[in-house]
Amino acid sequence: MSCRGRDELRGFEERDHGVFAAKLMEHLAVAAFVIDRSSRVLIWNKALERLTGVPAGEMIGRTDYWRAFYAEQRPCLVDLLLAGDFSRAGDLYEAWSDPDVNPGGLCAENWCLMPRAGRKCYLAFDVGPIFDESGDVIAVVETLRDLTAHKRMEAELEDLAGRDALTSIANRRTFDNRLGEEWRRCRRMAQPLSLLAIDVDYFKQYNDAYGHLQGDECLKRVAGCLQGEALRGGDLAARLGGEEFSIILPQTPNSGALAVAERIRKSLRAARLMHGSSPISQYVTVSIGVVTTTDESAVMELNELVAMADAALYCAKRRGRDCVVSFSEDCCDADRLYLSR
């Protein structure tokens, strides 16, 4: 290396490393900001300006950097690290790392409203302390990555995995998970939970007469009827397989569940879907079994509730189909015995 080259290298090494580090951070491709021990913003880099829509000139020296990410005041991840208090992380973030697993730093993910940018983003945050030569924390740096597209795609895939491919309502997997959640909630809060078991009457004969493609269209129409007539925000309609459907009705007494079931039955009749092979009607009909938790349900198992709904459904079929039957010991004991075989 020439003397001139060595001199230039020596000169570079002797420059103010703090200024160089600040410039490096400012032009870093990853969005980032740095606060001092007093929570004042020291650096607000260009990538973060683009992400939040907030220029550095408005943030340098300020402590209300939360405004760039949220509509209401709340701690950011840098604040938790600076305070050394991670107890609130679970309440503030959708996902976060255990600081014991990642000592000296913290990672989290959350939806942010981004008021100035005018869009909602799902961001991944990583924070770490900056120490002086004595080992004291003099600043904290937070980097941010926009995972919105990935998160939305993940949600779409999860939604598809939980839906019946033919009818687009919930599938058996989603039904089982939700029923378990609602069962635990109703027992914990002593609130009623109703369950509807629904079968399309003489569906095999329908398929034989009209073909499987028309049979698929029939199932879609039935699913649409369930969605259109039965559901509040917390209710769930699901196709369990074949011509079997079910509806979960949280916080619904037996009288309300019976009213929902009867609306479904009448709505499907009013749709006038031709069924020339049905011995009970010229139109497609359904049989519905209804069961509702009672004070004695606290000692029941969830599978017993499902068995009662099925027993009520078979009772409806024994009564001639195209009807609604609520579970009772008198009318359904024989059907429970049949189902248990």
Automatic annotation (TrEMBL):
Pfam families attached to this UniProt entry: GGDEF, PAS_9
GO CC annotations, alphabetized: plasma membrane
Catalysis: reaction(s): 2 GTP = 3',3'-c-di-GMP + 2 diphosphate
Origin: domain of life: Bacteria
Gene Ontology MF terms in the entry: diguanylate cyclase activity
Enzyme class: transferase
PANTHER family referenced in this protein's UniProt entry, alphabetically: DIGUANYLATE CYCLASE DGCM-RELATED, REGULATORY COMPONENTS OF SENSORY TRANSDUCTION SYSTEM
Identification of the protein by name: diguanylate cyclase
Organism: Methylocystis heyeri
